[in-house]
Amino acid sequence: MLDTLFTKLKPILNSPVIIFVYSILSKWYIMVMLTALMVTFWVFKGLTDTGILQAAEKTVSAALKDTKSVARYCVPKILSFSDFWECLQNPPEYEESENELELQKNLNNLLNPKGQQQNADPSENQQMTNPYAQ
């Protein structure tokens, strides 16, 4: 079935009109995609240079740490509404358990198979260098 379809399409695909249309569409596609990639690169480079991405990363990391703290310490207090609400308003400081540190270490080993060990504490891994800095 595929052979018959291909044999019927072969003369159409060899037509100079199809080649012309395809070349115009591919040219425009490449022009639009390269422009989009360059704009995206320069936007993120500008956000990195001004420190906005680092500030957003710190904010998201703090929110995730608060979420883990609420899940670990406040959810067990859900039956007592006043205790639960107090815990939600002032969540305790989150401390990683040994199992979580072990999981983080194993995930880092999976992500860095060439022996490039990273610390289990993500705050110690913040020392990244910008390869585009001059």
Number of strands: 0
Largest sheet: none
The whole-number mean of residue pLDDT values reads: 84
Q: What's the gyration radius in Å?
A: 27 Å
Q: Which stretches are poorly predicted, pLDDT < 50 over at least 5 residues? A: none
Number of helices: 5
Distance between the termini: 59 Å
- Assign an overall shape: elongated
Order of helices and strands: HHHHH
| Helical fraction | 55-70%
Main structural class: mainly alpha
- Please state roughly what percent of the residues sit in beta strands, choosing from under 5%, 5-15%, 15-25%, 25-35%, 35-45% or over 45%: under 5%
Describe it.
With 134 residues, the chain is mostly helical. The chain has five helices and no strands. The mean pLDDT is 84.
Main features:
134 residues; 5 helices; single chain; 69% helix; mainly alpha
Quick synopsis:
With 134 residues, this protein is mainly α.
Give me the secondary-structure topology.
Blueprint: H1 2-13, H2 16-50, H3 52-74, H4 81-89, H5 98-111
